[in-house]
Amino acid sequence: MTDIINFRDQVIPVSDVLLKQVEDSCVLLNLKNNNYYGLDPVGHHCYSRLIEADSIQDAFERLTNEYQVEAQELKEDLIILIESLIKAEVVYLKPKER
Length: 98
Description:
Layout: E1 10-13, E2 17-22, E3 25-30, E4 36-39, H1 41-52, H2 56-66, H3 71-87, E5 91-94
Antiparallel strand pairs: 1-5, 2-3, 3-4
Helix pairs in contact: 1-2
């Protein structure tokens, strides 16, 4: 699925998804199909940055400043996270005008 992740796109939560905090983690639940996805504290933070940003690139740049991690490693981790969230049907990508 990696070939469909374009960092100019925006990550949008599916409209019928609930986020429930569970101690230090959270769970995203799609109410229409009962798909869910659990996130640890770092995953939750990355998810929050992704859905509030205008693009994946914007979230990536902000997270690069917040975490001490190599840019390539962060990029790969974000792609894995986004692909997993899409597969769980709790987010989708909104292409930006090109």
